[in-house]
Amino acid sequence: MNSRSTVKWSYPYTLILIGFMAVVLSCSKSKEAPDDNQGLPITVPANKNADTNLDNSLFLKLVNDVRTKGCDCKQPDGGVTKMPPVPILAWSNDLATIAKTHADDMEKKNYFDHTDTEGRNPGQRMTAGGDLWSAYAENIAKGQQTENEAFNSWINSDHGHCQNIMSANIKEMGVARSAGNGNYWTQLFGTRR
Questions:
Q1: Which residues form the SCP domain (predicted)?
Q2: Is 158 exposed, middle or buried (0-12, 13-18, 19+ CB in 10 A)?
Q3: Which of 92, 109, 153, 167 might form a disulfide with 172, Cβ 3.0–4.6 angstroms?
């Protein structure tokens, strides 16, 4: 199974893009993370109209559960980055719609990349979709069959997916699975200006 990640922040004079490819390893709860975050509320989508081809509430819960606990994210060199607990994310139907378009495009045109066939990166697709962002990140995956499989491939990655999920700079998330065979997944994170 394949998965990739990218993250981009927009600053007044700086634009940074980091692209990652994933190798599935493992992520474990940080020893520094408190155990008493179990009672924190989880925000669920108020509007499930975005056609995502997956269980939006389940995916948001999977992400927010790990965000409230913290996580040890693996690094390519075998090291670990301790990610502390961070605020939960809100579901964004706008991001889910943009993610769905990309997942469908990858499946229909048989490619696997953060750059679409029109040469646009995730931030450019978000801008074209009307999202005025100050930060974004994207994870993509191919071959996973369930929400849990896709989430686990990203959270257990050693190339940035886990860090994208745990980023304190991100406020919203949308995820979608391709409509055809459902083999392509896009997870899009954003923070609006």
A1: 60-189
A2: buried
A3: 92
Question: Is residue 24 in some structural domain?
Answer: no
Number of compact structural domains in the chain = 1
The CA R_g of the chain, rounded to the nearest whole Å, is 15
β-pairing, 90-91 vs 71-74, is unpaired
- For 192, list phi and psi in degrees, rounded to 5: -80, 150
How far apart are the C-alpha atoms of 190 and 164, rounded to whole Å? 10
Express each pLDDT in 41-75 by its tens digit.
Answer: 434 444 434 589 999 999 999 999 999 999 999 99
Model confidence at 23: pLDDT above 60: no
Cα 55-23-174 angle, rounded to 5 deg: 25
CATH number at residue 71: 3.40.33.10
Question: Is residue 156 predicted with pLDDT exceeding 90?
Answer: yes
Q: What is the DSSP string of 55-91?
A: -HHHHHHHHHHHHHH-EEEE-TTS-EEEE---PPPEE
Q: Is residue 70 part of a domain?
A: yes
H helix count then E strand count, the chain:
5, 8
Flag whether 10 is in a domain.
no
Within 10 A of 170 (CB to CB), how many other CB atoms are there? 22
Amino acid at 39: G
